[in-house]
Specification:
heterodimer; A: about 90 residues; alpha+beta; Arc Repressor Mutant, subunit A; 2 strands; B: about 200 residues; mainly alpha; two-stranded antiparallel ribbon; about 75% helix
Chain lengths: ~90, ~200
């Protein structure tokens, strides 16, 4: 089963931060307080869309064909994603 | 159901323009043979034997006027890069229900009812006896025409919403504005075309 990376707190719905990282090879654990990279703050579906978009060389036409959707639908999805990314970038970090 | 009211999630651009142009042409030709015309953006009416060019010009005018107005509004109010082929293509395809409306004109009950109204209200033509079957069929066809008009408006709205990437209240307000402007313009143009037909 593929585990889903939680990005919001299940208790208070605040944004989660990275507290520790672990090396499976030598069992080293690093503790600290790290921001999640912007792309990881997006949903899995949105991350997949970005990956597919890059693989399609940024062609909305290819994306539309691949997803079986019309060109304006895919463009609207991209525009919504751009809006979400801009909102995340403009949100002040606490 | 989603494809029924919003096929534009799956089809737009050149494909919808080609299919839409074919549908518009078939609507005009069918309307010519079934004596059904569309004197403004949404009206469906029985017509006398007008020449074919009138039906073609009227059907294409209805499509072009709303498409031009919606494209203008999309350019001003949409934050996305709107393609003209999406607006015109999806608006052409959105008029598919009017092809079905043109087909309903082939039912003789409708023309019989038209003659009945002419005689009883305006004392024109010969007396017409309507059977109960005629009345039932006319009521059914009228309800069908109403449904086809509502379906067309929903399709036109969804076509605009998808093509221009506008949402919510903004999309509704822009569509209503375009609709009113187009209604007035198509009514005005229709009167002009009818004056040409009348000579």
């Amino acid at each position: 089963m593929e585990k889903k990376l939680p990005i919001v707190c299940p208790s208070c719905e605040s944004e989660l931060k990275v507290n520790s990282m672990h090396c499976e090879s030598c069992s080293t654990t690093i503790s600290g307080m790290f921001e999640l990279p912007l792309l990881l703050k997006l949903s899995r579906k949105e991350q997949d869309f970005i990956l597919d978009f890059v693989k399609a060389s940024g062609s909305l036409k290819i994306m539309a064909g691949k997803l079986g959707l019309s060109y304006p639908t895919v463009r609207n999805m991209l525009d919504d994603l751009i809006g979400k990314i801009e909102k995340l970038q403009n949100t002040p970090q606490l | 159901m989603n494809k029924f009211f919003n096929p534009f999630r799956y089809i737009a651009g050149g494909k919808s323009l080609l299919a839409g142009l074919l549908i518009l042409f078939l609507t005009a030709v069918t309307g010519y043979f079934s004596h059904t015309h569309f004197p403004d953006l949404i009206s469906i009416k029985l017509s006398p034997a007008f020449p074919l060019w009138y039906f073609v010009v009227q059907v294409f005018t209805n499509w072009l006027v709303i498409s031009i107005v919606l494209y203008g509004l999309a350019l001003i109010f949409s934050s996305s890069s709107v393609r003209i082929i999406d607006i015109f293509g999806t608006q052409a395809l959105a008029r598919f229900p009017y092809f079905l409306a043109a087909v309903t004109g082939f039912f003789s009950a409708m023309s019989k009812f038209g003659r009945y109204i002419l005689y009883t209200r305006f004392h024109q033509g010969e007396p017409v006896d309507l059977t109960s079957t005629d009345v039932i069929l006319v009521v059914f066809l009228m309800m069908l025409s109403l449904f086809l008009s509502i379906w067309t408006i929903i399709l036109m709205y969804n076509a605009f919403r998808i093509s221009a990437n506008v949402k919510g209240g903004k999309a509704v307000a822009l569509f209503i504005t375009a609709f009113i402007i187009s209604m007035v313009a198509t009514l005005f143009l229709s009167r002009y075309y009818l004056s040409l037909v009348a000579g």
